[in-house]
TrEMBL record:
It comes from the Bacteria. It comes from Bacillus aquiflavi. Residues 16-467 form the Aldehyde dehydrogenase domain. Belongs to the aldehyde dehydrogenase family. It holds the Pfam family Aldedh. This is Aldehyde dehydrogenase family protein. The lineage of its organism: Bacteria, Bacillati, Bacillota, Bacilli, Bacillales. Keywords: Oxidoreductase. Transmembrane segments: none annotated. GO terms for molecular function: lactaldehyde dehydrogenase (NAD+) activity. PANTHER family: ALDEHYDE DEHYDROGENASE.
Length: 476
C-alpha cells in the first residue's frame, strides 16, 4: 500500500515511492512517497499561505487544537505504540512510554500557547526614555522547517510541532526515512483536530533532497533539527540568516561515587544503557565507578543485563530488539572489537543473534577508543573505575559532546561540585543521564548542539521578540 505526502491538508501523490521494511522482521510495511524538489516547494508554499491564518488564530484556539490532538492520541494509544514498534523496532513497552510522553508534550504545548506573554519595559530607567509605555510581544516566525530522527518518531516530532503550533507558526516536517508513518499519523490527528490546511505538512523522502530545499527556500525562517552531529553541523553551516536549533548526539556518562547503595541504582542504569537498544541520545554509554565499589557494581550490572528479554518488538515481554539497520550492528561490533584489541575486557554480549546485537558490557575501555569517545548509539556500555571524584569529572568532560550526565552520590559537597564542573546541558544528581521529562529545558553544549527544547524553551527559539513603545503626551 502507498503512503502519500501530506501537503495542504491532503494526501498528495508523489512521482516516486520507496518500500519501507521492518528493521526486525525485514518484511515490507508500506511504500513511502519520496518528495522531489517541487513537492517540497509546494509544501513550503502551503505553509506560507497558512502562516497568516495561524498568526491570527487566538491562543485559546491553538491550545484547543493541541489538546484535541492529545485526546485523540489517548484514544489511539495502542495503535500508535504498535506503529512505532513496527517501523522503528522499538519494543512495545518503550513505544507505549513514548506515546504517553507525546501526549504530555502536546498538553504542555497547549498550556504554553495560553501563556505566551511578553513583559513591560521600564523605558524611563534611561535618560530620554521618560513618558513612555513599552511592552514586548512574541510573534510567530512564520514557516518552520523541522527535521526529525528515527529514535523517538512521535515525541521528537511533538517537540517541534507542539511549540511551533502553540506559538502560531506553520511547519514543513521531514521525518526520518525509517519512521515516516508516526509523523504522518500525527499530521492526520492535527487535521482531525481542526488545524487549518497547510499549517502542518509532512514531506517524506531523502534527507538531502528535502533538507536542501528547506535550507535554501527564503520562506523558511527557521530550521529545527534533531539528529546526528554530522548532518546538523552541515545544516548550520549553510543556513545563512535562518534561525537554527540543533539537538545532536552524545556519549553520555554517569558517575557512581563511593558509598551509594548499588542494588537501588544498578537496574536504573541498566535501563538507561539499553532502552531502545541504546539508540537514545542520552543513553548511558560511559559509567565511571569508584574503585571501592567497582567489582560489586560490575557483578550486579551484568546480572541485571542478563535479565533483559531479547526478541520481537511487538512482544509484550521484549526489552531489546533489532537495531535500526544491519550496517549499525556491523559498526558497533567493529568498535567493540577494536576496544577489546586495545585492552578492554568484554564482560558480556558483543555478538549478534538473528541480527540483534546482544546487550554488551565492556570494562576499562581506553578513552581513545571510539566506543568511549564517539557516540555508539547501540546497546553497548562501558564501565571504568576511578580513584578520586575529580578524576571521574575530568573523564566525563573529556568528550566532544555534552548533552546530559548523571552523578550518584551521597556526598552533598561532591554533588554540588560535580553539578558545577560538568560541561553538559543537564546534570542529573542521583539519577541517570537518560532522565527527561518533556517540559524541562533540554539540549546540549559542544557537539551536542545548541538551543533548547522543552516547549517553553523551544517557543523562545520559535518566536520573534517585538518591542512596542507608546510615547505619551508630555505631562502638563
Ligand atoms: P540522522 O541520520 O542525522 O537523521 C536525522 C534526520 O536528518 C532524518 O530525518 C534524516 O533523513 C535527515 N537528514 C539526513 N541527511 C540530511 C541532509 N543532508 N539534510 C537534511 N536532513 C538530512 O540521525 P538519525 O540516525 O535519524 O538519529 C540519530 C541521531 O540523532 C543520533 O546522533 C542521536 O544522538 C541524535 N538525537 C539527538 C537528540 C537530542 O535531542 N539531542 C534526540 C534524538 C536523537 P533520512 O532519514 O531520510 O536520512
Amino acid at each position: 500500500m502507498k503512503q502519500h505526502l501530506w501537503i495542504n491538508g491532503k494526501d498528495v501523490e508523489a512521482k516516486e515511492y520507496r518500500d519501507l521494511f521492518s528493521p526486525y522482521s525485514k518484511k515490507k510495511i508500506k511504500s513511502i512517497a519520496q518528495a522531489n524538489e517541487k513537492d517540497v516547494k509546494n509544501a513550503i508554499e502551503s505553509a506560507r499561505h497558512a502562516a497568516q491564518t495561524m498568526a491570527d488564530m487566538p491562543a485559546y484556539k491553538r491550545a484547543n487544537i493541541l489538546e484535541k490532538v492529545a485526546e485523540f492520541l489517548t484514544e489511539e494509544k495502542e495503535e500508535c505504540a504498535k506503529l512505532i514498534a513496527t517501523e522503528a523496532a522499538k519494543p512495545l513497552k518503550a513505544a507505549r512510554g513514548e506515546v504517553e510522553r507525546t501526549i504530555m508534550t502536546y498538553l504542555f504545548a497547549a498550556q504554553e500557547a495560553r501563556r505566551l506573554t511578553g513583559e513591560t519595559i521600564p523605558m524611563d530607567a534611561a535618560p530620554g526614555g521618560e513618558n513612555r509605555v513599552a511592552y514586548t510581544v512574541k510573534e510567530p516566525l512564520g514557516v518552520i522547517g523541522a527535521i526529525t530522527p528515527f529514535n523517538f518518531p512521535m515525541n521528537l516530532v511533538a517537540h517541534k510541532v507542539g511549540p511551533a503550533i502553540a506559538a502560531g507558526n506553520t511547519v514543513v516536517l521531514k521525518p526520518a526515512s525509517q519512521t515516516p508513518l508516526s509523523a504522518l499519523k500525527i499530521a492526520k490527528l492535527f487535521h482531525k483536530a481542526g488545524l487549518p490546511a497547510g499549517a502542518l505538512n509532512v514531506v517524506t523522502g531523502s534527507g538531502k533532497t528535502v533538507g536542501d530545499v528547506l535550507l535554501t527556500d527564503e520562506n523558511i525562517r527557521m530550521i529545527t533539527f534533531t539528529g546526528s552531529p554530522e548532518v546538523g553541523i552541515s545544516l548550520r553551516e549553510r543556513a545563512g540568516l535562518k534561525r537554527v536549533t540543533l539537538e545532536l548526539g552524545s556519549n553520555s556518562a554517569v558517575i557512581v561515587d563511593s558509598e551509594v547503595e548499588l542494588h537501588k541504582i544498578v537496574p536504573r542504569i541498566v535501563a538507561g544503557a539499553f532502552a531502545f537498544q541504546g539508540q537514545v541520545c542520552i543513553s548511558v554509554q560511559r559509567i565511571y565507578v569508584h574503585e571501592a565499589l567497582f567489582t560489586q557494581f560490575v557483578e550486579l550490572f551484568i546480572a541485571e543485563t542478563k535479565k533483559l528479554v531479547i526478541g520481537n518488538p511487538l512482544d509484550e515481554s521484549t526489552d531489546i530488539s533489532a537495531m535500526i539497520s544491519e550496517g549499525d550492528v556491523k559498526r558497533a561490533k567493529s568498535w567493540i572489537e577494536s576496544a577489546v584489541k586495545n585492552g578492554a575486557q568484554l564482560a558480556c554480549g558483543g555478538v549478534d543473534e538473528a541480527g540483534i546485537l546482544q546487550p554488551t558490557v565492556l570494562l576499562q575501555v581506553p578513552n581513545t577508543e571510539k566506543l568511549s569517545c564517539e557516540e555508539i548509539f547501540a546497546p553497548v556500555v562501558h564501565i571504568n573505575s576511578f580513584s578520586h571524584f575529580e578524576e571521574a569529572i575530568a573523564a566525563v568532560n573529556e568528550s566532544k559532546y555534552g548533552l546530559q550526565a548523571g552523578i550518584f552520590t551521597t556526598n552533598i559537597e561532591r554533588a554540588f561540585k560535580g553539578a558545577k564542573a560538568l560541561h553538559v546541558g543537564g546534570v542529573m544528581i542521583n539519577d541517570f543521564s537518560t532522565f527527561r521529562v518533556d517540559h524541562m529545558p533540554y539540549g546540549g553544549v559542544k557537539m551536542s548542539g545548541f538551543g533548547r527544547e522543552g516547549i517553553k524553551y523551544a517557543i523562545e527559539e520559535m518566536t520573534e521578540l517585538k518591542l512596542i513603545s507608546f510615547k505619551l503626551n508630555d505631562p502638563v
